[in-house]
Fold this sequence. Notes:
Elements: E1 11-15, H1 44-56, E2 61-65, H2 75-83, E3 90-95, H3 100-109, E4 114-118, H4 124-131, H5 136-146, E5 153-158, H6 166-178, E6 182-186, H7 202-213, E7 217-218, E8 229-232, E9 239-243, E10 256-259, E11 264-266, E12 275-276, H8 277-282, H9 287-299, H10 321-324
Parallel strand pairs: 1-2, 1-10, 2-3, 3-4, 4-5, 5-6, 6-9
Antiparallel strand pairs: 7-8, 8-9, 10-11, 11-12
Amino acid sequence: MIDQYNRDINYIRISVTDRCNLGCVYCMPKEGAVFLPQSEILTYDEIIRLCRCFAKLGIKQVKITGGEPLVRNDIVSLVGKIKSLEGISRVTLTTNGALLMEHLSCLLSSGLDGVNISLDTLDPERYKQITRRDCFYQVRTAIKEAVKYSELRVKINCVPLADTSEEDIRDLVELARENLLSVRFIEMMPIGLGKNYSFQNEEELRSLITLAYGELTPIPSTGVGGPARYYSIPGFLGSIGFISAMSHKFCNECNRIRLTADGHLKTCLQYEKGWDLKSMLRQKTTDSTLERAIALGIYGKPGGHSFHLPQYPGFHEQDYMSQIGG
């Protein structure tokens, strides 16, 4: 599917729930979080039906997200069913890792190609401050187990806040020295509670990492996946990546869309919910009509975000990241 800016849209992030077992400070409110009733969340059958439509239109890669996708029952079966669809080449999953150990073996058997594990620090006490939960050692154990599987691409996602220490950054970088995985540093976007936090940008992080480890060598893009730019460091088994939507806007290369847990097709992270596909599904709309609606939505995908411009209520996304699909 080619959009109006001649971008090949072949990647979708599908949120299966807005619920999470952690309470990260930049993602979930400390109190008063409101979750969707179960009846408003897409069923697995509805997700599979939409995935068939997406695949017909050229979507090849599917990322399962949440909230925390592993809190939803029988998520393993969904992974297997999506992976078996004609036209779908890769299925990956983003998780906070706290429940990963108990599902990892079954997820691999279902055909999971990769896992992104969110982790902002290797300091157990700071982890507890950020996530409001005491799950650090479960996550660390899951990472150690995941890297044992050569067929599984493992990525660590870190969002460095302004108060993230140099020691925290170096500890995370060390994971890539010792393991065949990618550590990616992601710039905070001003969405939901993220508006309340300052972040460290790519230049600051690269300067710190270069000072500690030497020059970073760019790794040529494979053309698979998303916006991260990867670098190698001599003596490292893994790589370092940067996803810098704020300081290095990459919208002209964006190849993705999102499906929220309540069935809205979002074509840009910044803007409010777009096409209500759930209503179409539940009104017994035909696949051909669904595909036309999806194609129209994709074609109209915005040229890029405009976070540097004034925010207008009713135009920019107001939901938390857990509600959108992280």
